């Protein structure tokens, strides 16, 4: 038993320590300033109140990015000093964001303890390294992100903080080896348990999916598979699940060694940054080497996002969540009793809406931010949800879950192929095209204008709001741009009243909703660290079976032209083209 003392350290507030829905994200050089991390952690403890902190069991882990190991030691020593009873750490400091949520909700410690919350160390899909990004967020006892009420309190404390508490003489814990280390301090016993990063998550996935049918699919000579972790924490789970449990070849795993700098890459699972996977799946600009696999998937840094690919075929995230919802009851044992409801973020395409209406399911449209889904799930109103930014999940946890989405797609493939006697496999592309034939197709794209002058971005948004006051003028402008585009039936600034807690979220995006089901959405995004990011979402709904096989850029061209000219995008921003198109 190692003894330790508590020190009170003087400090002063920092500017800009306001956590958003994804926590606090800054450059590493900001976090390594003296007392910067300490201020935020102490502010979190203060906001939670001493009653909730004393005797608590906290999870402290993350995606393994640069500065994580040092941060874990600091948070552990501050936890001890603030009266926390025990800290749980994933081996080598690694736990995916969905795994942390699962551990908080499900894990029981050797002494029967249950977690009461946790600090997740991640900047999600942002790059890592000494000159890149670091992040921290607090998750609650339900496994979900801290609500706005708590994050606002944390911020208020960071603006007035004068001291923090830390046990400096507590030795650093060896996080590379599993086991429990016992300490004693002024508050009494304090334990640190380092546990296997993957075991609890694998157990959870096996309780949701039929691993036997998945093994049968992956062992089929007709089926080939590829998974790219982009050197994020998803690699800590990939071999255990896909190779050890499901029998995939180890050669089917790409970039599955977690690295502090994500191998120098950008751990964002999309067609731009997952270059190696995209090329292997036959979607690169040059000819692929050999025949592409039947199925491919990628994860982001903390493994909560996913990208799904078929052979030479990209599945949009909006289509992905709709297809999972349409097939969940038949294909995934966890949902065999039926879905409670489904939900999507407002900018996500309305593909899920059509499924919900057809299957007579409760449906919710919420602002961007996973906490809104969490409220619905805690109230038993939602089973499957998703967002257009490559996030998909269900009520098994309170975060989006990239590997869950991959296993959901593999389950649908296994179900569609289980009684097949002929040689031809039902492919990812087959499933998507059949879905379009049944429900119609939502052609969809997103234009991101990054690091735009903040003043110019606000002026553009204000102009679009003002324009909405007279729809007849809007439709006149549109007809002058493209006569083949439908009239706008409704326009507003999206506002959401939470059906569970009654809270109201205003100014969540500017919507132009067309008579034919098409939509234009304009949003300012809070994920960038410099300037403003304008996101433009363009969606064209097509029910005619003869028109669902067009190239997206062709189908969307008229609406794109309307969106750019109606908004005066170039005039306000000075940009002739977006930074990224997805």
| Overall pLDDT | 94
Instruction: Quickly give the CATH architecture of the largest domain.
Output: 3-Layer(aba) Sandwich
Secondary structure tally: strands: 27
Overall domain count: 3
Fourth CATH level, the homologous superfamily of the largest domain: Alpha-D-Glucose-1,6-Bisphosphate, subunit A, domain 3
The portion of residues assigned to helices is 25-40%
Question: Structural class per helix/strand content?
Answer: alpha/beta
Percentage of residues in strands = 15-25%
Distance between the termini: 55 Å
Q: What's the number of helices?
A: 19
Indicate the CATH topology of the largest domain: Alpha-D-Glucose-1,6-Bisphosphate, Chain A, domain 3
Question: What is the C-alpha radius of gyration, as a whole number of Å?
Answer: 24 Å
Poorly predicted runs of 5 or more residues: none
Q: At the first level of CATH, what is the class of the largest domain?
A: Alpha Beta
Inertia-based shape: globular
Strand order of the largest sheet: 1-9-10-5-4-6-7-3
Main β-sheet description: 8 strands, mixed
Description:
This protein is of the alpha/beta class and 582 residues long. It has three domains: 2-196, Alpha-D-Glucose-1,6-Bisphosphate, subunit A, domain 3 (Alpha-D-Glucose-1,6-Bisphosphate, Chain A, domain 3); 200-439, Alpha-D-Glucose-1,6-Bisphosphate, subunit A, domain 3 (Alpha-D-Glucose-1,6-Bisphosphate, Chain A, domain 3, 3-Layer(aba) Sandwich); 441-581, Alpha-D-phosphohexomutase, C-terminal domain (TATA-Binding Protein). The strands form six sheets. An eight-stranded mixed β-sheet has the order 1-9-10-5-4-6-7-3, sandwiched between helices. α2 (36-48) packs across α4, α2 crosses α6 and α11 crosses α14 (402-417). It is globular, with a radius of gyration of 24 Å.
């Amino acid at each position: 038993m190692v003894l330790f003392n508590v020190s009170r350290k003087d400090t002063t507030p920092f500017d800009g320590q306001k956590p958003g829905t994804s926590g606090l994200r800054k450059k590493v050089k900001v976090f390594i300033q003296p007392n910067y991390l300490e201020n935020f952690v102490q502010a979190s403890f203060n906001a939670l109140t001493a009653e909730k902190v004393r005797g608590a069991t906290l999870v402290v882990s993350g995606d393994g990015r640069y500065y994580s190991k040092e941060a874990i030691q600091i948070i552990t020593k501050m936890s001890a000093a603030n009266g926390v009873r025990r800290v749980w750490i994933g081996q080598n400091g690694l736990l995916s964001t969905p795994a942390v949520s699962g551990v908080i909700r499900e894990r029981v410690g050797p002494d029967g303890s249950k977690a009461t919350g946790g600090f997740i160390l991640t900047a999600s899909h942002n790059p890592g390294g000494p000159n890149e990004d670091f992040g921290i967020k607090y998750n609650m006892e339900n496994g979900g992100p801290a609500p706005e009420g708590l994050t606002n309190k944390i911020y208020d404390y960071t603006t007035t903080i004068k001291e923090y508490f830390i046990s400096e003489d507590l030795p650093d814990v060896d996080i590379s080896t599993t086991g429990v280390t016992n300490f004693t301090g002024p508050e009494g016993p304090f334990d640190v348990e380092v546990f296997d990063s993957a075991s609890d998550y694998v157990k959870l996935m096996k309780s949701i999916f039929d691993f036997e049918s998945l093994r049968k699919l992956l062992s089929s000579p007709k089926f080939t598979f590829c998974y790219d972790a982009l050197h994020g924490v998803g690699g800590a789970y990939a071999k255990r699940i896909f190779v050890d449990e499901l029998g995939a070849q180890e050669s089917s795993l790409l970039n599955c060694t977690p690295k502090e700098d994500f191998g120098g890459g950008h751990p964002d699972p999309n067609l731009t940054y997952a270059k190696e996977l995209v090329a292997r799946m036959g979607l690169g600009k040059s000819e692929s080497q050999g025949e592409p696999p039947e199925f491919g998937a990628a994860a982001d840094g903390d493994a909560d996002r996913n990208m799904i690919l078929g052979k030479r075929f990209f599945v949009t995230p909006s289509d992905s969540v709709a297809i999972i919802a349409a097939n969940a009851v038949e294909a995934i044992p966890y949902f065999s009793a039926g879905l409670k409801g489904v939900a999507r973020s407002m900018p996500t395409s309305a593909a899920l809406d059509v499924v919900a209406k057809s299957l007579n399911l409760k449906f919710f449209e919420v602002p961007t931010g996973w906490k809104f889904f969490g409220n619905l799930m805690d109230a038993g109103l939602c089973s499957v949800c998703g967002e257009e930014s490559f996030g998909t999940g269900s009520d098994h946890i309170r975060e989006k879950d990239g590997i869950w989405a991959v296993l959901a797609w593999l389950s649908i493939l296994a179900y569609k192929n289980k009684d097949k006697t002929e040689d031809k496999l039902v492919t990812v592309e087959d499933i998507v095209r059949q879905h379009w034939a049944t429900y119609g197709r939502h052609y969809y794209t997103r234009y991101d204008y990054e690091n735009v002058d903040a003043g110019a971005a606000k002026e553009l948004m204000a102009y679009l709001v003002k324009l909405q006051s007279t729809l007849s003028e809007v439709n006149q402008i549109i007809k002058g741009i493209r006569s083949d585009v439908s009239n706008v039936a409704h326009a507003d600034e999206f506002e959401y009243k939470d059906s569970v807690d009654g809270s109201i979220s205003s100014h969540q995006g500017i919507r132009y909703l067309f008579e034919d089901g098409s939509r234009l959405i304009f949003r300012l995004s809070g994920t960038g660290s410099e300037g403003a990011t304008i996101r433009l979402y363009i969606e064209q709904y097509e029910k005619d079976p003869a028109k669902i096989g067009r190239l997206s850029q062709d189908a969307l061209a008229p609406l794109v032209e309307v969106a750019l000219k109606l908004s005066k995008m170039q005039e306000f921003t000075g940009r002739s083209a977006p930074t990224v198109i997805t």
